[in-house]
Amino acid sequence: MAQYISAFSKPPVKVPNGFVRMLDRAIALRKRVGSAVSSQKDGQTARGEDERLSDQRHSFFVGVLEGVREALKPRMSADVKDKSSESQGPGTAASGSEGTLGNLFTSLTVEDDLETLRTRRRVLAEIIMDIEEAFVAFTCLLTDFDSIRTVLKETWIGYLEGQFDIVSASITTNTALELARCLEEEQQQIFASYGGTQGMLELYYKAHSLGQGYGAPYKEQPEDELNFALYDFSSTFYWPTHLILNSYLDVHQPGSVPMSNCEKVKEDKIILCEILPDFSLLSFSPRRSATDDELTRGLCQAFKTGKLTLAVIFAAQIFLDIHHILRDDVDRGFMNLCRAAAASEASINENFKFHKNLKIENWPATNDHVVRQLANTIRASYADDLQGIRRRVGFPPEIVIEDNRLLKNHPIKCGLAVCDVKATFYQAGIVFCNAWGSVLFSAHLYNAVWQEKMLDKAWKDMELLYGIQDTEHMFAGDRPTSSDQYFRRFCLAMGYSATNFAPNRRKNQAGPAASPAGPRTLLEQAPVSRMFMPRYSHGAERTDMTPNDIEKILDKSNWLEVDDDEEDSDGERVKVTLERQTKPGQKSQLKNKWNTKHQLTIPQLLQSLRISLQTETFEFSFDYFMFGTAGGC
Fold first, then answer.
1. What predicted TM-score, i.e. pTM, was given to this entire model?
2. Residues 291, 417: contact at Cβ < 8 Å?
3. Hey, is 355 helix, strand or coil?
4. Domain residues of the chain, as ranges?
5. Residue 71's pLDDT band (cuts 50, 70, 90)
6. Residues contacting 134, CB < 8 A, separation 6+
7. Bond into 11 cis (ω within 30)
């Protein structure tokens, strides 16, 4: 067998070093035993015929092992090929006990047990963090939060001025708050020894107070909420917001109906104290909504545990910033939600009226039932769930609360609800149009009569559809411009094979050939907006963005934001405008940076996401149900 292995050359077999060392050990040990027996003096031991036969078999087996080694020698590595004199030479054993002991373990090696390596638990060394390192880490965390806050202020200023819609602003904001929460969670180990981020906030404030010559509890007036001389600095790390939330948690008892009547001294406290009871009521509901934002999720958790995190405090600060920016227009988000839901529901109802007496095989009656359920779900998107919770927990009926008070004061949640409505309506509309097929028919018919100059005016909705959809997919190539191409492209789009138009096609072939790919359909567009559909429409858990997701965002964000120099009295209002950064098809500087370094700052990512969502507004808001009716379904 050794000779066969050595002769095998396709591919050549390499003898492992461990096997060679084991073979050398076996040969050396058997030789030493044989030498020891043969060197004994006559009469020292009585050896019979059986022992002598055993000695012969032993010597024969040693010869076989040596033959195996010699046969495999060409397939051994150089470092073990000739290393046999120490382990095999008989002189080694005969040179005395000292030499034997010196060479006894020469061929032995220590090998790790692979199974042990796989199951061995990794033990991380304890990281000892002193207070200075914790302060540095906390300062860096606050710096990141501040950069996020700046982007979000710009976002809601842009929403107020009509630059961004409610969906773009809300998704950007909630994504930013999720990133802020992840940043805090990554640093929890550093702050754990000092009471977590809440403890670090207190240390941060006390250190600054002492540095300015104030005692930590100093107040100008006993009834003051805090030392107003330090307000400007303390607001940079959200200390006033922390005090308001913490004071509310002190009086909030899990399981009881919140009846707080906070003293409304400052504007922030007025805003929060009016709306915090509604967040508290939401914590009583065991069912979480898919459109719950980070502030809602974080506050509900805080009401259950009695503990605040920096991410929740930061989310509350962003909530206040939005109120300061929108002022009297803070309920505009709720109006956007009502309009989006009403328009979607009306479109579905009109579609049902139009198709009342129309039936096709591709659209069974069960599909109508699903669409009716969709209309009911859309109608419920702006219903006031809190009124039902108030009744369940025994809220006094004589206390009248404004309907939808939370939604009217919470534009972020309204924007996420609009995203849910649009996403569900958008997806169902494309499925509907593809089943009936009339939009694709109308697209080919309109193109033909337009190219033949048989229309005085363009069909603007269809031209918009051409801009939204992939026309090369719809027309199986470029838009046809000649009469001989209209019918051919239409047949290809309907699923007929191109072989039907081959000049050498057999005339006796039975019927037209079908394409294996089937008929063309309308494609779902708005890739960035659809990234958030599992989260805000289907209730999936938050997942981290993948490099592929970032690629989609950067592909869409070829617009450069330009900040004008206009500011309000507080220096916070910055007008945001959009200008095209690159020509269509060219890569932006940010995309080139991502391709070369795979690095983006958080503000760059948020700004790119905001622009991408805004550029997809027309794609994501297109009414396919209404267009299917207008297209002649």
1. 0.71
2. yes
3. coil
4. 2-119, 131-334, 369-408+415-524, 527-621
5. confident
6. 190, 191, 193, 194, 200
7. yes
